[in-house]
Design a protein that fits this description.
mainly beta, 22-stranded antiparallel barrel, two-stranded antiparallel sheet, 1 helix, globular
Length: 450
């Protein structure tokens, strides 16, 4: 995801949808950016971007990233090289471009059961290969502006293993996609429809998506319907937001997921979520609940072939959150979830708290060339029960992890330092696979326009 400009998260009732936007260049002045990062696990990363939009409407973009890590305890050493490029032209509301991204990497085998004293040296096999993505896109208008827009896209994705393939696994998997999307944005109304044809190993599958949204002063509603998605399931959900008063907000969401083949994907699942939030003395306090119907949890076979799926009954989770300013530039945010019923593969308790300070010292530095952001973050994830072949279970213990983030902006340069698991907590989220400890990453990101 290093070549992305934006990652946006949409929280629906049945799933979490992630929207990705590739890096764009909007001005005719050449744009250059350099990222340099180093830190724990012998991590080193170098990244460079160059982009320019021509006065005749053409665009040229290219970049590259080199990254490597070395882990003495757990294995999984990695070395990766990734280039990206785009050429295109935009004239008025019409734009055409071609985009390509390749990510080649090698990774050593993962070591398991370090804490037991009898490590398994090849728990997850080594890998050498690459992923490639390319597409050609033509568009009239843009979805984030008012009016009618249309986009057509032809894309190809390929995953290839070039290392030791004696295990007999497929060495290459490819998929071609053809997408046609159109929509209308007018005032408070947003409508869109998408048709997607996926071609994999000669098999074809068509997916359709229809979305509708309306946002008023006191209320908003959005609806989403998909048929024939990546897992062949049908999805439908609706989200309603209410703001009857400036200090009171409510959100209701309901969704249904229906697998195409219940024998493989399990039974249909309905999920409902409700949340009420109020502002008290400038701080928001929220409480809510999420209810999930009975379903089947898939197995985590990638970690261990003994892990199996499990049928779980209906469950209800209670949620709470608080956030807002504490004093001056200091803010605090906390959100937690507790499920009333335990279930395989699901931590019963999760929480995240963040204490942050931000200031651009505008009174002292009127040119706005300096900003400071620092945060202390506490995360907790409860233990997880995993069913195994034969009717037994294995379990991981819950763990609390503390970290810090520091970011200073000097002109167009950002100097940053991230520290995760600062207390050196020894823990596992999957039995036998030790999580990193004392992870420190620091570096600089510097942009130029010249």
């Amino acid at each position: 995801i290093w070549a992305l400009e934006e990652v946006a998260v949409e929280r629906a009732a049945t799933e979490l949808r992630v929207h990705l936007r590739s890096w764009r260049v909007r001005v005719t002045t050449p744009e250059t950016r350099t990222d340099i990062l180093t830190g724990s696990e012998n991590t080193n990363l170098y990244r460079g971007f160059y982009g320019k939009r021509m006065r005749n409407g053409g665009v040229l973009q290219f970049g590259a990233q080199q990254a490597s890590t070395t882990s003495v305890r757990t294995g999984g050493d990695m070395d990766a090289l990734s280039p990206v490029g785009r050429i295109g032209v935009a004239r008025g509301r019409l734009s055409v471009d071609a985009f390509a991204l390749k990510f080649g990497r090698t990774r050593s085998a993962m070591v398991r059961d370090i804490l037991s004293g009898t490590p398994t040296q090849n728990a997850i096999s080594a890998f050498e290969g690459d992923d490639a993505l390319g597409y050609v896109r033509a568009a009239w208008g843009r979805p984030d502006t008012s009016g009618i827009w249309v986009q057509a896209l032809a894309a190809a994705l390929r995953h290839e293993e070039t290392g030791d393939t004696t295990a007999g696994a497929d060495t290459a998997v490819a998929q071609t996609q053809f997408v046609l999307a159109t929509g209308l944005s007018r005032g408070a109304l947003d409508l869109s429809a998408t048709a997607r044809l996926r071609v994999t190993a000669g098999a074809q599958r068509v997916a359709t998506i229809v979305r509708a949204g309306w946002q008023g002063r006191w209320a908003g509603v959005s609806a989403f319907v998909e048929d024939g998605g990546p897992d062949s399931a049908r999805r439908a959900d609706v989200v309603v937001g209410l703001t009857p008063l400036s200090w009171l907000q409510a959100q209701l969401a309901h969704g249904v997921r229906t697998p195409d083949d219940p024998a493989v994907g399990g039974p249909s699942v309905t999920t409902s979520r409700a949340e009420l939030a109020g502002r008290v003395y400038g701080r928001w306090i929220a409480a809510g609940a999420v209810h999930r119907a009975a379903t089947t949890m898939p197995a985590l076979a990638v970690f261990d072939a003994r892990y199996v799926g499990a049928a779980v009954p209906a469950a209800t989770g209670w949620q709470a959150a608080v956030g807002g300013p504490l004093w001056g530039p200091i803010t605090f945010e906390w959100r937690g979830t507790r499920w009333a019923e335990g279930a395989p593969y699901l931590p019963q308790v999760e929480s995240r708290a963040e204490l942050r300070v931000f200031s651009d010292f505008r009174r002292q530095i009127r040119r706005g060339t300096f900003a400071l952001s620092a945060a202390a973050i506490h995360e907790y994830r409860g233990g997880v029960v995993i069913p195994v072949v034969g009717g037994g279970t294995v379990r991981t213990q819950g763990a609390a992890v503390f970290g810090t983030v520091l970011d200073m902006r000097l002109g167009t340069a950002h100097i940053f330092w991230h520290n995760r698991n600062a207390m050196g907590k020894v823990y596992e989220t999957v039995p036998g696979f030790l999580m990193p400890r004392l992870v420190q990453l620091y570096g600089v990101r510097w942009a130029f326009w010249n």
